[in-house]
């Protein structure tokens, strides 16, 4: 039986998507060849990547003037590539957690960076400098990491600022409707909500490019990949194929609106269980809680029970709920493909454990 996979990344994919991918690995689109051994320039894969690009635009309601490209290098390469292409003199960064601070670090190699951080409080709240008008007017963009995968906070709206936005949406893409028009760039690794590791999606406003003076290496210039339809070099064909299957499944389910509703419900029942528990408590400010990565610990007086709860959870087929080493305790990641029944199994385990102790 399949386990209840709460992994933070790489993460659960829908069973139907995995089966389809497995069959394409054996015989891709009736070619009699494996998806893993065909030319990326053949008509079958050209159709796959084109459909993936169009479906991403459709599901995320990407306006005219924006391009969708598929790259390698992970979100981590975007930490550098984004400022290289967009940062003229100065940028602002919201330092909301581990990934956000890595992004700011790379941007500092390229230009001046102003940060707004909650690091001193171990990232238990999400910094919102726009609420106090603190984002300088003269920055090229404000970079936000919309979901903090490690600490479990999230910004679930697109802030109103005078400047352009750049968003790392690796761990919450396709979980809410995004106003893409506010962004110059949205990027993310696919391995949390879309596909296996290996492909990075980038949504970029065409007119935002071409304004920096520095010479750009060919591979790191977004325009290279736009002009070649993400085929300048060999694209990661397998994860792109799987991304397409996931997005088709999203469309069948009713698109982003339907996914958001399901996710809110999953998060609500789990946070309710945590908040009403005698043994467990959440680790971040309730108003900034992530609906994707739910972090919780045993209350101080019960700390020594954490190991026992792990054992109980494991015995019930619950996989990967160990918290990140910087937070400890537990982290249950509730990505799109995780069914509500898995959350219910976890809650049941928490309740049974509480009855025993
Ligand atoms: C996982 C993650 C990353 C890192 O992605 P890679 O593809 O491994 O480079 C970056 N940002 C966020 C928000 C993430 O969750």
From TrEMBL:
UniProt cofactor note: Binds 1 pyridoxal phosphate per subunit.
Protein function: Catalyzes the reversible conversion of 3-phosphohydroxypyruvate to phosphoserine and of 3-hydroxy-2-oxo-4-phosphonooxybutanoate to phosphohydroxythreonine.
Entry's EC annotation: 2.6.1.52
Quaternary context: Homodimer.
Domain Aminotransferase class V: 5-345
Cofactor(s) it depends on: pyridoxal 5'-phosphate
Family to which this protein belongs: Belongs to the class-V pyridoxal-phosphate-dependent aminotransferase family. SerC subfamily.
Gene that produces this protein: serC
Protein name (Swiss-Prot/TrEMBL): Phosphoserine aminotransferase
The keyword Ligase belongs to this UniProt entry's keyword annotation: no
Pathway where it operates: Amino-acid biosynthesis; L-serine biosynthesis; L-serine from 3-phospho-D-glycerate: step 2/3; Cofactor biosynthesis; pyridoxine 5'-phosphate biosynthesis; pyridoxine 5'-phosphate from D-erythrose 4-phosphate: step 3/5
Entry binding sites for pyridoxal 5'-phosphate: 75-76, 99, 149, 168, 191, 233-234
SUPFAM superfamilies: PLP-dependent transferases
Keyword terms: Amino-acid biosynthesis, Aminotransferase, Cytoplasm, Pyridoxal phosphate, Pyridoxine biosynthesis, Serine biosynthesis, Transferase
GO biological process, alphabetically ordered: L-serine biosynthetic process; pyridoxine biosynthetic process
GO cellular component: cytoplasm
Localisation per UniProt entry: Cytoplasm
Catalytic activity: 4-(phosphooxy)-L-threonine + 2-oxoglutarate = (R)-3-hydroxy-2-oxo-4-phosphooxybutanoate + L-glutamate; O-phospho-L-serine + 2-oxoglutarate = 3-phosphooxypyruvate + L-glutamate
PANTHER family assigned to the protein according to its UniProt record, in alphabetical order: PHOSPHOSERINE AMINOTRANSFERASE
Binding-site list for L-glutamate: 41
One Pfam family cited in the UniProt record for this chain: Aminotran_5
Residue positions, PTM N6-(pyridoxal phosphate)lysine: 192
GO molecular function annotations of the record: O-phospho-L-serine:2-oxoglutarate aminotransferase activity; pyridoxal phosphate binding
Source organism of this protein record: Porphyromonas catoniae ATCC 51270
